[in-house]
Predict the 3D structure of the following.
Amino acid sequence: MRISRPTNLRTRLTLWYVAVLAVLLLVYAALVFAFQYALLTRQLAHDEVQDVVTVEGLLYFDTQDKLQLHQDYYSRPQSHLLVDRLMEVRDLSGNVLYRSSVLHDMPLGGPNRDGEGDKAFDERVVRLRDGSYVFLVSHIHVMQGHTLLIRLGYSLAPLRVRMIQFMGMLLVAIPLALLLAGAAGQLIARRALRPLEKMSNRAEGITASNLDQRLEIQNPDDELGQMARVFNLLLDRLEQAFFQLQRFTADAAHELRTPLASLRTIGEVALERDQNDDAYREALEDILEESARLSETIDSLLLLARAETTQPGTEQTVFIVADLVNEVLNLLGIVIEEKHVRVLREGEATGCVGVRADRSLLRVAILNLLHNALKFSPNDSILRIAYSRPENVEPKLIIAFQDEGPGIQAGEHERIFERFFTSRTSSTASHSGTGLGLSITKLIIDRLGGSVRFDQDLQQGARCIIELPIAE
Amino acid sequence: MTSARPKILIIEDDRKMSAALVSGIEAAGYDVIAAGSAEEGFFLVHSTQPDLLLLDLTLPQRNGLDILKQIRSEGIDVRVLILTSHNTVEDRVAGLRTGADDYLGKPFSFPELIARIDALLRRILPISQSNAFVIGDLTIDTRTRNASRNGKLLELTTREFDLLLYLAENRGRTVSREMLAKDVWRETARYTPIDNVIDVQIARLRRKVDDPFAVKLLQTVRGLGFSLREPQP
C-alpha cells in the first residue's frame, strides 16, 4: 500500500519536525550509550588493577612450595563481592599454580602469550568454557625467586545486564518524547498558520464587485503580515486597473454612441419627408463621414489595446530616432509646405542614437505628436525639434517639439493625455479628432520606459517633451 | 446573363450586408450569386463554378476557413477574397495560408472592395500592355513618367505623379482615402492619421491638373473619396 503524501501543510510540517527530532534523539542515545559503556569498562579495569596489587600481597608459597592465598579477612562477611574475583596464577612455562575455586577448573584465558603482563597490566576480554565473558587483567609478579603470571578477571555479565536495561529505558523514552513533540508541533503549527487560514477565507470572498476589501494584517513585520501586505498591494493595482477599465469601457461606449446618434438622426431626418435627390445624397454623404469617424475611433481603441498588451521584447528592433522623426516629417511634408511652417532642428547629431522599440508603434506616437503640432500651427510659423541628452543620468534622449499654436489651457497639461479628452476651448474645438491620439502616444512611450509631457512653463505655443531610453 | 461577365459568389450571413454587396458588385459589372450559410455556399461553389468567392469568416455553424480548406483540398479553381471583422495580422496570415488570394478587414470601403475584385479577376484576364493612359485631354506616360494636358507638360512631384497615376489606373472609379494611404503612401498600419495629408496633396494636384483648365477631371466624392474621370455632359 502506498502512503499518500499529506496535503495539509500543518501535518507535513509536524511530520518533518518529528522526523528530524527522531534522528537527533537516536544519534544522541547511541552516543550516550557508547560513552556509558566505555566509562563502566574503564571502572572495571581500574578495580581489577587495584585488586591485582592487593592479591600480590596476599600470595605466598606454603611449606610444600605450593602457592596459596591468605584468606584471613574472610572474617568480614560484607567482602563477599571478592568471591566474584576470578583468578589464575601461572609460571612462565604455563603450569597453573593457583586457580580460584569459582572457576571450577576452567582455564582463565588459555596458554601464556608472549610478553603477557610483562611491562604493564594487559587488558582483554576472554570467553570461558561455560560461555560467559570475562574482562581480564594480566600482570607478571616476582615473588620469592618465582616469576608468576597473575590473571585476574571479573565477569562482564552484570555490566551487560545494566547496559541492556539502560537501552530499554532509552527505547521507551524516545518514542514517548517524539509523540509529545509531535503533538506540540501540530499545535504550534496550527497556531502559526491560523492567520493564513483567515486570509484565505477572506481572499475567497473578494470578487470584482468588492475589490475594495483588503486582508487583515495582524503583525506587519512577520512573514504572514508581509504576505498580506504584498497581497493587498496586488489588490490595489488590480482595483485600479479594473476601475480604469470600467471607466474606459464606459467612455468608449459613450464615444461610440455620439457618432451613432449622428448616424441615426441624419437617417431619420432624411427619411421623415420626401426630399429631392440632392438632399438624400447629402444625408448619405454625412452618414458615410460619420461612419468613417466611428471606424477611426474603433481602430484607435484596437491600437490602444495592442499597445497595452505589448510585451517588452516582442517585435522590437533598434533604430535611429532622428531617422524616424525625419521620416514622419517627410510624410507630413506636404502639410508643412502648405502652411509655410518652417521646421528648425536643433542638435540633430544628438538625436542620431538608437532606441529599442516596436518601430511601427513609436512611429504612430511621433506621427500623432507632430500631426497635432502641425494641426495647431498657424501659417508661416516655426516648428522646433530639439534633441538633447541630460547629463549624469542613465542614457536617455530628450526630444522637444515646440509649435507656435494656441498652446494648452492652464490645468490641462496632464488631462490632455486622458482618453477621450478634447479641449472645449473655442480655439481648438474645430480640430476635434477621436480624442485618443495623445493617450495612444503616451501609452506607447510609457511602455518603452520613456515619458511624455507638455511643458507647463511655456507662455506661447505648446512644447511636448519626450524622453526615450537609449539602446546599448 | 452573358458568359463574358465574371461570376462572383458571396457567402455572407448578414442579409443586409449581402444585399448591399450584391447590388453594388452587380453595378460594377459582375454576375453575383449570394449564399447565406456555409452549406448553401459550398453547394453553390460546385453547382455554379464562380470565378471569385467573397467569403465571410464568421458564419453560423461552420467557420469560413473550414470551407476554404475544403475548397482548396478538392482542388477547385476559384479566386477567394476573405471579408472579416477579425482583422489582426495573425488572422490575415491564417487566411492567406489556408489558400485565400486576398483579405479585406471590415469595415472596408466599397471602392476598395471593387478594386480588389477587379485586381483578382484581372489576373485571369490578359493584362493590358499599354503604358499610357488617356483621360480626356490628360495623357500619362508611365514609361517617361510624364503627364500633360492638352499637350502642355504638367510639372509634378514624384508623389503627385504617383497619385495621379493611381487615380488614372482606377479611372472612372472612386478611390477611397484608405486605398490612397495603402497604395500610394504605402502606410500599412490601419491606424495612421494621414487623411489630412491626403487632402492637402489632392488639393495641390488639383491646382496643377485642373485649375488652369476649363474641364475638371479630378472629382471629390463626399464620404467616398476621389475619382479621375471626364465629367458627364
